[in-house]
Amino acid sequence: MLKKSALGWPKIAGLGIALVVAGQFSGWNFGLMAGGWLNMLIATLLMALLCGGLALCVTELSTALPSAGGVFVYAQSAFGPFVGYLVGVACAIALTIGTGAAATFICAYTESIFGFGGWAVKIALFAVIIGIHLRGVGEAMGLTMVAGVIAVVALLTFGVAMAPHVELANLLKMPANAGPAISLGGIFACVPFAIWLFITVEQTGSAAEEASDPGRSMPRGILAAIGTLLVTALVVLVCAPGAGGVELVGSAGDPLYAAMASSNVYGEGSWLAKVIGCGGVFGLIATFFSLIYAASRQLFAMARDGLFPQWLGKTGKRGTPYPALLLIGAIGLPMSAVDPATVMLAVVLLLNVCYLFIFGAYLRIKSSQPDLPRPFRLVGGKLIAWLGLALTLVVIAACFQLDVKMLIALAVTFTLCILNFALRTRLPTPLETPDHA
């Protein structure tokens, strides 16, 4: 069994921030090259509405149906075992392969700041962070929160340091081969990268089963995370390209460090650029921690319900799902060899397919189970869910600029997972009933 009442609202907020904050140090900047700054700004505000609304819907669901399975449990409750299974699989795959992109971005920063990176750093990251998770959720989340706080401080310091160097001309200069400064096509092209500033914050719902007093701690933690992330997203979106230039920042693996170290700002040898770069490493490590946490709980919950092999549903003496943690390392490490932009688009596509069903589950559970105890109720929840559904369809359509090979790999993986579901639901022994108490 997982350890109960291990997480208060500050650790939940730290988890929510840490899940996302790496996306504010790397990845989002590719959108600048896709459509320019103004289109990216509009896309970012739209994605803040989408992810903020989704997180609040998940907050209500997580307090009504607290479970380590998170979104998988909500989809299952609303639409039945098969849809719940597909949503759980999509989330688990997205979070697991996302660890590969996070490791790649960490190496980009360590290479620029310290002069070393590559496979040695990637292997050490997976070994050390999975090892800390194996020791216990309290230890892992405590370190995640510390790393997340350092990352947020680094982002705010970055904003203060870069603000005097921001020039409107830098922001409005369009990159080569980009279209008009503001256009639907430009916004559409930016969307899959703009969402990277907020994506996965809804996975904080997986902490509900281990939260102390979920009805109070979950909404407080998630709301704190959303507010913090919106502020830091706007800081990096204005200050990095505004000082360093759209083309320099838009093509960098370490955009914040690249902006500060540019010749017209602080220069290569700047100690301040290196300090902020170190903050970026902490932020990326925080997200790395959180992705492993959320993915392992997703795999554990589905295995516990009989939808994955039973060995994935085992926990050690410290109440941690060690087989799921080891499997994530075995998949995530090789994925770090794939182009991070391709991995990002795959993660965005998978998670937004899940988002369709999460918003749908929210609406359906709201209507079909009106008497379900809800310690937290979202004001205007149905309107927010319908708006979120519309925005999610836009994101999914935008993701089909994805590499064809990756699309084929995802299709093959899902086919195998559907076969797994068909075999397991035909087994003579009934599925175990999940314990969400």
Structure commentary:
This protein has 437 residues and is mostly helical. It has one domain (15-425): Amino acid/polyamine transporter I (Up-down Bundle), CATH 1.20.1740. 71% of the residues lie in helices and 0% in strands.
Which terms summarize this structure?
globular, Amino acid/polyamine transporter I, disordered C terminus, mainly alpha, 17 helices, 437 residues
Annotated CATH homologous superfamily: Amino acid/polyamine transporter I
CATH fold-level label:
Amino acid/polyamine transporter I
Radius of gyration over C-alpha positions, nearest whole angstrom:
21 Å
Helix fraction bin: over 70%
Top CATH class = Mainly Alpha
Mean pLDDT: 82
Global outline: globular
How many individual helices? Answer: 17
Q: What structural category characterises the helix and strand content?
A: mainly alpha
Low-confidence stretches: 428-437
Major beta-sheet overview: none
Beta-strand segment tally: 0
The domain count comes to 1
Query: Span from first to last CA?
Result: 11 Å
